[in-house]
Every structure is written in C-alpha cells, then in structure tokens.
Design goal:
The protein is mainly α. It is globular, with a radius of gyration of 12 Å. The two termini are 14 Å apart.
Amino acid sequence: MDYSELYVARIRKLCKARGIAINKLATMSDVKQSTLDNIVRGLTKNPRVKTLHKIAITFNMTLSEFLDFPELNAYSFEDDEE
C-alpha cells in the first residue's frame, strides 16, 4: 500500500465508523466534492495540509490525531518508488 492509499483508507474507515458518506463529508468539512472525490479515488496523491485539516476537524480530531494511526506510523518512505 502506498502512502496516499493509507490516508484514503483512514478517511474511509472514519466515515464508515461514523456513518458518514463521502459526499456528506465534503459538505460537512467544506471541502469541494470534486477535491474529496479526487483524493478518495487516488487521483490526488498529495492533498494540501489545509484540506486534511478540514477533514480532521470534521471528525472532531486534530490534524495530528487524524494522521496518528499504526499503518501510517509504520510506513517507510524508503519503499517509495517516486
């Protein structure tokens, strides 16, 4: 799993746990639907911190809480093939 897939999985997991559809998340977070769709579909590999921050706030989390999960913490950038 690459880096961008990790935070997409995080968004999907948090949405599922809270019963929020992706389009509802866009409305709640004030992130454009197209922007969130591009992130979730993997077209945007490196979203802006501001975007992730808005999403985190919607989940009632700080950005650091949103980004603090085992899969991301264990990720090694040395494995990237950029």
